[in-house]
Amino acid sequence: MASLNVGNLGEYLREQRRNAQLSLRQLADAAGVSNPYLSQIERGLRKPSAEVLQQVAKALRISAETLYVRAGILDAERDRDEVETRAVILADPTLTEAQKQALLQIYESFRKENGFAAGDGAVDAQDDDAAGTGTRTAGGTDADPQQTAS
Prior knowledge:
Elements: H1 7-19, H2 24-31, H3 35-42, H4 50-60, H5 64-71, H6 80-91, H7 97-113
Helix pairs in contact: 2-3, 2-4, 4-5, 4-6
Region (Disordered): 118-150
Protein name: Transcriptional regulator
Keywords: DNA-binding
């Protein structure tokens, strides 16, 4: 299988993991992702979502932004507030995937209305389920995003 253009990220993650003296399994457990999925990221075979990168960064105690840049999600000069807003929405464990997508759509519509175009490296939550990071409400059911606004 040909590797994606995320080899730089994988090499960097492997280096950071080794510097932290963590095994692949230990980092995967700490980040809440599967061991095979993390291995594929390190080998450059998978491109992780922003949420997974945030979890890995937290487990390694490094900047998530650094991982975003290395993964190509964020250009070094790109508006950091936009990326942080998106990352916070995607990382919120109390929101369902549908709610996250609804909030991101609303956020993007306000940015467009105020004259800010969507970034080329927009964070995408579609890969989250590949890492097993889907979320549900406390009752275990997906909530209707339109009913969450108060």
